[in-house]
């Protein structure tokens, strides 16, 4: 090839590229991620957007479009307000607009495009595809309406062939209405007035827009159902425009063997290395020694589906599948468990909101989206609960490849009910819309093996006809678990009883209802907050369920929660737990990462070690230094602030009073009070012996505190806790305090601070193996 030609092409294109760049820039004054610098009008989500049904030819329509915000009753605009970078929501910084739309207006889009010449041959049809548009959209091509759609989270397509002109540029116009929190439609966390746990809306096009050519008879969808027990994959293609002369082919690819499994199903004939069957049937293909997909080994088989007219291959799509089995069964102790491939695998995940400071609903790049998942996996999680939002198909594809289980929430909408309230009575229009969108979302996602749980309702948000909706969800997809409502208002249906406990994770006896064949899960816990200056949505008034001042204290609290969680897997028998949350979101600072993803807030090594223990056997706990429940133990104590270094081993505490643990008020729940303490603060110390054969590395605190307390071992801070407990709980000891312990005589010293309500402090040491 002549080397001058690419140079000339680049020279000719440069002015157009420069002009496009000049028409767009992110909205200033917003928190941005590191990936924002990679976004431009010529490089915006260029990845193929439909990984479960891939065709070779396609054209991406992301980039700069014209936009206008007009009153909803106004005529279509003749002049537009400016440029918007699709597919970023109009409210986002990366859209280049950063404006709200509201219930009283409509958002209009417009752009021109050209159809490649080879798409117009052989009777091909041209499909215009939208990944997602929030919420109600009408699409026109060359002033001709080609279709409309309701639903902010499911993909849709229109055949635009008959609206195209014979040559030259074509024009698309998209009309969007999104009432946000003023409507009944599923919307998740989007509200007109963001605050607390409610966030900025994402109006309009927020996933990739693209075109593809297809033959007149074409594959429009695949329903892929692997049968793990039998080692068979069943594929039911949906075909448009087929006749009796059309046949389907299927073969499966084992990437380990790097060759195709061409074993025929026995109902057709082998041709071109593929099983052939007539259109309108389900194709079955056996797979010898099928490898099972799991978080530890996320094995994916490749699929190819072809449509033949006689001997001519006229359409072909590539996909993939995985063999993994989901069930609920009782373990050897009679506890109902969520089983993966007939084994109990504890699921530990994050609550993942899927918001971005610069793109809102839309990640700035695919690499950014993948980064969240990679960090989640790296920090010791094997699951994600996708919270009241649906992601682009590529997000689930990354989960499939990384081995991350997904609990998929249905986005909430309409009104809320109270914790003990009756189900909503929705309007006919609201109920019909919810169920239409639920069916569309499940249909669009059901082929992704990483998705293991459908969650129709969260905490009473939009909850109605719970038993019927749970049954409908199971009917739509019998292969997955159904969590009828995550948290709050349980109706005794579905595969799980889901508790929300902040910070948790200890459930109250009242919360654990008789659950029969339903597994017990902790659908939300944690919510530990830390705002980090320079990385927050707002400079002040940030919010967390419990807030900390520094990374070390936050790490202590996180590791402590996981230490408490570990024995609860055995009794009362949690099958899963979900920590709130992956990242900060707007003013909510409960994330493992900051909102801009620049920082992981805690000590990564300690996080990973704590998470890893959850997947091991239940801990065996043995008392090393008893607490007040089993022995009358003398401590030295004072209510007056002592001199500095009061926690050191050499400190002279002879002037302090002597009293028996525990210290507090008798009405405080779960306590053994032997010495009354009614003041605001108390300092306590005692000396204890560790036998020479003590496995010091296995030691944990067994402690009951009400409220905030600092614990020292031989003068070294062992843990710092906030809030209160209602029972004795297992607490990990900081590594530096473990190193300070030695066989023989040691000192434990505690300061406890009272704020309101009950008060109590006591501690002992246990060995955890």
From TrEMBL:
One of its GO terms (biological process) is carbohydrate metabolic process. It comes from the Bacteria. Residues 367-487 form the Glycoside hydrolase family 2 catalytic domain. Residues 1-22 form the signal peptide. InterPro entries: Beta-gal/glucu_dom_sf, Galactose-bd-like_sf, GH, GH2_Domain-Containing, Glyco_hydro_2_cat, Glyco_hydro_2_N, Ig-like_fold, Ig-like_GH2. Residues 105-180 form the Glycosyl hydrolases family 2 sugar binding domain. Keywords: Glycosidase, Hydrolase, Signal. Residues 222-324 form the Glycoside hydrolase family 2 immunoglobulin-like beta-sandwich domain. GO terms for molecular function: hydrolase activity, hydrolyzing O-glycosyl compounds. Belongs to the glycosyl hydrolase 2 family. This is Beta-galactosidase. It comes from Humisphaera borealis.
């Amino acid at each position: 090839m002549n080397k001058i030609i690419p140079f000339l092409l680049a020279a000719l294109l440069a002015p157009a590229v420069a002009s496009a760049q000049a028409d767009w820039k992110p909205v200033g004054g917003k928190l941005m991620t590191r990936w924002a610098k990679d976004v431009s009008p010529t490089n915006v989500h260029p990845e193929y957007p439909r990984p479960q049904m891939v065709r070779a030819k396609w054209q991406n329509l992301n980039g700069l479009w014209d936009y206008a915000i007009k009153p909803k009753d106004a005529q279509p605009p003749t002049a537009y307000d400016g440029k918007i970078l699709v597919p970023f929501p109009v409210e986002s910084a990366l859209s280049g607009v950063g404006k709200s739309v509201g219930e009283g207006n409509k958002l209009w889009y417009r752009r021109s495009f050209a159809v490649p010449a080879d798409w117009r041959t052989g009777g091909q049809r041209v499909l215009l595809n939208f990944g997602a548009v929030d919420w109600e959209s009408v699409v026109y091509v060359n002033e001709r309406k080609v279709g409309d759609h309701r639903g902010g989270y499911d993909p849709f397509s229109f055949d635009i062939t008959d609206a195209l002109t014979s040559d030259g540029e074509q024009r698309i116009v998209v009309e969007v209405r999104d009432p946000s929190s003023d409507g009944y439609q599923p919307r998740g966390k989007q509200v007109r007035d963001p605050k607390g746990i409610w966030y900025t809306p994402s109006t309009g096009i927020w996933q990739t827009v693209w075109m593809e050519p297809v033959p007149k008879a074409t594959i429009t969808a695949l329903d892929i159902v692997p049968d793990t027990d039998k080692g068979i994959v069943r594929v039911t293609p949906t075909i448009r425009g087929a006749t009796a002369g059309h046949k389907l082919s299927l073969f499966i690819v084992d990437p380990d063997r790097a060759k195709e499994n061409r074993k025929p199903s026995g109902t057709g004939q082998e041709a071109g290395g593929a099983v052939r069957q007539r259109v309108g049937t389900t194709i079955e293909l056996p797979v010898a020694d099928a490898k099972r997909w799991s978080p530890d080994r996320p094995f994916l088989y490749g699929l190819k589906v072809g449509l033949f007219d006689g001997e001519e291959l006229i359409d072909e799509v590539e996909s993939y599948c995985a063999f993994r089995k989901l069930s609920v069964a009782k373990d050897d102790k009679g506890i109902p468990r969520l089983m993966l491939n007939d084994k109990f695998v504890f699921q530990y995940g994050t609550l993942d909101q899927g918001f971005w400071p610069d793109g809102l609903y839309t990640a700035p790049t695919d690499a950014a989206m993948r980064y969240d998942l990679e960090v989640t996996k790296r920090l010791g999680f094997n699951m994600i609960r996708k919270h009241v939002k649906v992601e682009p198909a590529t997000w689930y594809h990354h989960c499939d490849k990384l081995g991350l289980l997904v609990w998929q929430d249905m986005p909430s909408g309409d009104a809320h009910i109270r914790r003990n309230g009756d189900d909503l009575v929705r309007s006919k229009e609201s109920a019909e819309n919810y169920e239409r969108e639920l069916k569309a979302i499940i249909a669009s996602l059901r082929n992704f093996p990483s998705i293991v749980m459908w969650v129709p309702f969260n905490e009473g948000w939009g909850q109605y006809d719970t038993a019927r909706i749970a049954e409908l969800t199971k009917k739509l997809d019998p292969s997955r678990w159904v969590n009828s409502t995550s948290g709050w208002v349980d109706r005794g249906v579905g595969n799980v009883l889901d508790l929300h406990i902040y910070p948790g994770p200890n459930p109250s006896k009242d919360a654990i209802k008789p659950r029969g064949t339903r597994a017990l899960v902790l659908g939300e816990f944690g919510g530990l907050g830390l705002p980090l200056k320079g990385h927050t949505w707002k400079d002040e008034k940030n919010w967390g369920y419990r807030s900390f001042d520094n990374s070390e204290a936050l790490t202590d609290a996180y590791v402590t929660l996981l230490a408490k969680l570990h024995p609860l897997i055995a009794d009362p028998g949690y099958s899963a737990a979900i920590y709130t949350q992956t990242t900060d979101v707007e003013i909510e600072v409960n994330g493992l990462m900051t909102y801009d993803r620049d920082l992981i807030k805690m000590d990564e090594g300690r996080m990973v070690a704590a998470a890893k223990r959850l997947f091991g056997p239940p801990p065996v706990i043995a008392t090393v230094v008893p607490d007040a429940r089993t022995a009358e133990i003398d401590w030295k104590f004072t209510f007056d602030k002592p001199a500095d270094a009061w926690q050191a081993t050499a400190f002279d505490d002879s002037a302090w009073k002597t009293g028996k643990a525990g210290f507090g008020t008798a009405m405080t729940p779960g306590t053994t009070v032997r010495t009354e303490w009614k003041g605001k603060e108390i300092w306590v110390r005692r000396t204890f012996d560790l036998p020479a054969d003590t496995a010091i590395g296995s030691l944990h605190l067994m402690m009951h505190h009400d409220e905030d307390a600092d614990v020292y071992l031989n003068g070294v801070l062992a843990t710092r806790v906030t809030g209160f407990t209602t029972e004795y709980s297992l607490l990990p000891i900081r590594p530096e305090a473990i190193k300070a312990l030695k066989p023989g005589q040691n000192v434990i010293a505690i300061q406890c601070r009272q704020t309101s309500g009950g008060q109590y402090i006591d501690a002992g040491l246990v060995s955890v193996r």
